[in-house]
Task: inverse folding
């Protein structure tokens, strides 16, 4: 299998973002409450539900594109959806990194970088 590493990274990203999207959908109020507290001292304090909704949409797009990208790689019918899934994953992670830095949660920001590295590798391999 020529694309094993790309498939594994896309699976990692798909699981990450589809699970995160699931949690946002089914535990919406818990997330909003926690994030309002997290961003209480920032300019985002009044924008939490809207920002969370935007992130949710992008996470679902990322996860779905990654799944379709895996199917494309397995069936050797292209790489476009995997590439777009990786790009949208990077955008989601950059949005989260921005939020963590804005909230001065540097440990949280550091954790996001761990996810960002394989996402950028996927962009590079699938380009």
Result:
């Amino acid at each position: 299998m020529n694309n094993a590493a790309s498939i594994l990274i896309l699976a990692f990203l798909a699981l990450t973002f589809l699970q995160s999207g699931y949690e946002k959908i089914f535990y919406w109020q818990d997330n909003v409450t926690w994030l309002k507290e997290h961003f209480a001292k920032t300019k985002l304090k009044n924008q939490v539900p809207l920002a969370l909704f935007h992130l949710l949409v992008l996470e679902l797009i990322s996860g779905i594109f990654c799944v379709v990208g895996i199917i494309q790689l397995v069936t050797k019918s292209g790489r476009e959806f995997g590439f777009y899934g990786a790009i949208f994953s990077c955008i989601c992670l950059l949005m989260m990194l921005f939020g963590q830095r804005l909230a001065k949660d540097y440990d949280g920001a550091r954790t996001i970088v761990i996810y960002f590295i394989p996402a950028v590798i996927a962009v590079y391999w699938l380009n």
User: Anything to note?
Assistant: Residues 95 and 101 are 10 Å apart (CA to CA). The chain has one domain: 4-38+47-126. The radius of gyration is 15 Å. The chain has a mean pLDDT of 97.
